[in-house]
Design goal:
By secondary structure, the protein is an alpha/beta fold. The protein has helices at about 5-10, 15-20, 50-60, 90-100, 110-115, 170-180, 195-205, 220-230, 240-250, 285-295, 300-310, 330-340, and strands at about 35-40, 60, 75-80, 80-85, 105-110, 130-145, 160-165, 190-195, 210-215, 230-235, 255, 270-280. Strands 1, 4, 5, 6, 7, 8, 9, 10, 11 and 12 form a ten-stranded mixed sheet that branches. Strands 2-3 form a two-stranded parallel ribbon. Helix 6 links the parallel strand 7 and strand 8 (about 190-195). Helix 10 crosses helix 12 (about 330-340). The longest helix has 12 residues, at about 50-60.
């Protein structure tokens, strides 16, 4: 019988409680009805969507599969079926975790911190204090794309221009508004267009936009496709304005988009990066998140990530607890403490 939402929340994850010391083997846990675990990702043209799909497959442990290490076996969480769901991005994922629509999701560290403290796009709302972190995964870079023949040469030159700042609910909106302000521009100084990456790229290719902004791990498929249709270039985010912004928003780092990431990008482009983290609701049981964290750091999972997306090669246990922006979930903290990543008691704070 399909699980109702109420039954799901009351049972996530009963199987974990049956085998807290040794999940992944056959036994009573595999006899349970499967429990669904929803992961919010992002738009199909971004980084979160493919990475989230890989994570969902890796942590799933459908009933009936052989144990981890055997031919065709699962190294996921016994009885758990994770489902990656497309979304508008960081802000959307956090709101839907808060509202109980998602159990977990991917988000930028700066957006997660803003939600946890009730700042930025969450100002005037109750802080989303139920957010917890599983891991830092990889770095995302702010891309500001303009036509190659555009007179726009710096962020300041965007004044009076038509700029796609991302869909409502994306972390890109939060980032670009901070960047524009750092360069002395108000929201009213640009014509903001709220559109997903794919339509934005089409508009830019056809002359309907002067610039589009997207935060994600290069190479981004949407921008790579755009660069094949129309010559484009990336605006640098550098100078004293960028340095002042990094000093103000410590989740930002000055880091270049590597040369050759896109057709026509022969040199590295200075920009800002921010960590992408895997969030989970604090209502999810400690034993469940412990097992999800264990499944994340399996050798098979890391191989899938490295082979499935260029950013997947960056996912490493050594960086799992840096720059999270919200407290670790107790289940994840226990896993890291056992692997000498933290000292118990683990009380991670923003």
């Amino acid at each position: 019988m399909p699980l109702t939402r109420r039954r799901l929340l009351s049972r996530v994850l009963p199987a974990a409680g049956l085998a807290a010391a040794g999940f992944g083997g056959v036994g009573a846990a595999r006899a349970q009805d499967p429990v669904f675990f929803r992961i919010g990702t992002g738009t199909t043209g971004g980084t979160y969507f493919p990475i989230g799909g890989i994570l969902a497959g890796a942590i799933s442990g459908p009933p009936g599969l052989p144990p981890c290490g055997s031919a065709g076996g699962s190294c996921g969480v016994s009885g758990l079926i994770a489902v990656a769901q497309a979304s508008a991005g960081s802000i959307d994922n956090i709101r839907r975790i808060r509202d109980g629509e998602f159990d977990s999701g991917l988000a930028q560290a700066d957006v997660a911190f803003a939600a946890y403290t009730g700042e930025g796009p969450f100002a005037g709302q109750p802080p989303v204090t139920g957010l917890r972190a599983i891991a830092h995964l990889f770095s995302e870079f702010v891309h500001i794309v303009v036509p190659a023949d555009s007179p726009v040469r710096s962020v300041a030159d965007l004044k009076g221009k038509r700029v796609s700042v991302g869909a409502e609910g994306s972390g890109t909106i939060y980032d670009i508004r901070l960047i524009l302000a750092a360069y002395g521009l108000k929201e009213s100084d640009v014509t903001e267009v709220y559109e997903r990456p794919e339509p934005s790229a089409d508009l830019l290719a056809e002359g309907g936009l002067d610039a589009m902004v997207m935060t994600g791990g290069p190479p981004l498929g949407v921008i790579a496709d755009l660069a094949r249709r129309r010559p484009v270039r990336l605006l640098p985010i550098e100078g004293p304005e960028a340095e002042a912004l990094v000093a103000k928003v410590p989740f930002f780092t000055q880091e270049p988009i590597p040369a050759g990431s896109y057709e026509g990008s022969a040199t590295a482009v200075p920009t800002l990066s921010v960590g992408a983290i895997w969030l989970v609701a604090d209502r999810i049981a400690e034993a469940t998140v412990y097992e999800i964290t264990r499944a994340l750091w399996q050798k098979t999972t890391l191989e899938l990530l490295a082979g499935g997306h260029p950013r997947g090669k960056e996912v490493a246990l050594e960086g799992a607890t840096r720059g999270l922006g919200v407290p670790l979930h107790p289940g994840a903290a226990r896993y890291y403490a056992e692997h000498a990543m933290l000292s118990l008691p683990a009380r991670a704070t923003p």
